[in-house]
Amino acid sequence: MAQGLVVGTSGHIDHGKTSLVRALTGVDLDALPEEQERGITIALGFTPLDLDDGRRVAFVDVPGHERLVRTMVAGAAGVDAVLLCISAVDGTMPQTREHLAILDLLGVTQGAVVLTMADLVDDELLEMAAEDAEMLVEGTFLEGAPVVPFSSVTGRGKPELLEVIATFAQTDRSPTGPFRLPVDRAFVRPGFGTVVTGTAWSGRVSDGQTLRLLPSEASVRIRGVQVHGESVSEAIGGQRVALNLAGVEKQDVPRGTLVVGGDVAVSSMLDVRYTHLPGAPELDDGAQVRVLLGTSERIGRLHIAANNDHLVPGRTTAAQLRLDKPLACLPGDRFVIRRASPVTTLGGGVVVDPWAPRMRHKTRVAHGEAMNRLADGDAVVWLERAGEGGLSLAEWSLRAGDTLAPVLGERVLAPRVLGRLEGALLQALTAYHAELPLSLGAHRRELRRGRLAHVDEKIFDGLVDRLSDGHLIDVHGPLVRLASFHVEPTPEQVVIKDRVAASLAAAGFAGIAPKVLHETHSEPEVEALARLLEAEGVAVLVPQVGWVDASVLEGLRVSLREHFEGAEFLTPADFKAMTSLSRKTAIPLLEWLDRSKWTSRRGEGRVVGAQL
């Protein structure tokens, strides 16, 4: 299929837009009975034209009537270029200026001015109309663009206009990312069912694929794709697309619906960069407005994200739109704002953050500064706004593409947020060591309290791993301590530790249970000193037995080896005879030997283990 180019026609009512397209393509876009009866374009019409260079142009003819500006915005969104039609008879009219301003706000960058009805005026009037048009477009994207006199009756200007159209470049719209098609028209085709049309903004769609309708979240299956009038198996961003939808009725897909494949924000709170048109009236902070984005329309309020209570004409500012209903959009989408009543165009701009938190009046300046950073490409702002919960990898990819950022527990965090968490964990460990200087470290569960209590477990584990990899902390099983920390008992505590070691040596295989240890040694730090002996390899804590002298256990290892040199099997009776222990103590010790792989249980007895 030939590469596509979407060209919109725009201008005041009865300035020859539909006649222009008919003269170029032979197709009358005033196809609806009401349009033919009233002689104006109500719905969006489109028809293809093949250029000599092999490209196919899809013309989108949009309404010029003032009351149908919403439809005009729907058609202009997504066009590659525009033909601004100005009647050589009437000249520039109010809707001509408004359409030009809207096209500028929507980011259209190329086009031409067409002086229609050129057969109805003489050369002098035609020259005056051309000068008037050139003055009109000064300072806009059409400044310096070709001005082509045209007549749909005589054919004047048709070859020149086709040459101009052939110079238009296709807008670089990404075939990657989520597929997005703002629906500008829906109808029922007999034998096929519901069909929707629009200009795809991004991504790709294939016949048979399942997509969603936003904001309703309804699921639909594609059972037919057309691009610029031809049936295809796949369509991509930048093409004029018609989709045959299975599973929905026409009324389920009103204009303003977004057909999507992938993740797209649906929000009633948008951070934006807004430009107030030079000729617009001053606007108060929080004023009610109409928001037109793609083919959608919402009522909302515009709140200024700066230390200002009024919007001055001609100024651009950071702002937040709070809408009456959720709107599906992504960063970079352009919008137009009109006054709620009387209906006039006020300005427009670009969406900066469709996932924005609600802006508070007292922090609106800081909110605006963060928004400006986002607009300048600083994606870290999204992570800062996500706080210590961070964003999922999919959420971060949707917002920032391949931009690198710290990842903890499959969550992406802002560097400054990560720094705060690292500081909080190090501070918690410092406080723990100060309170318990004889402890070998804090249990992970003890650290996830207080300041860190709300942190997701996976994020916390990732934080511990990160600090460990950075050699700031040491991790020993469940215990965590500062890498710079070392237990340093006082001389008095060393004396207590030696007494504890002597008690353990005297207890032999029977060991000393923690409770008995506290009864024997009344000092409060005795348990910490016992764990210090364990860290030094002097003692071992055997479950259900207690602390056992390590040298006693090493002697047991020797005895076990000697036993298995002469016997294949160790019975409980053999073990009690070897250790002089009661069954109550012998069985837990045998189970510890099994876990340590010194022995391996077989029936009621044991055989030699892998670690013996």
Provide structural commentary.
- The protein folds into five domains: 4-166, 3-Layer(aba) Sandwich (Rossmann fold), CATH 3.40.50; 179-261, Elongation Factor Tu (Ef-tu), domain 3 (Beta Barrel), CATH 2.40.30.10; 265-378, Beta Barrel (Elongation Factor Tu (Ef-tu), domain 3), CATH 2.40.30; 379-488, Arc Repressor Mutant, subunit A (Orthogonal Bundle); 491-608, Winged helix-like DNA-binding domain superfamily/Winged helix DNA-binding domain (Arc Repressor Mutant, subunit A, Orthogonal Bundle).
- The chain is α+β, with helices and mostly antiparallel strands and 612 residues long.
- Residues 30-45 and 64-68 have low confidence and may be disordered.
- The protein contains 18 helices and 34 strands.
- The strands form nine sheets. Strands 7, 8, 9, 11, 12, 13, 15 and 16 form an eight-stranded antiparallel β-sheet that branches. A six-stranded mixed β-sheet has the order 2-3-1-4-5-6, sandwiched between helices.
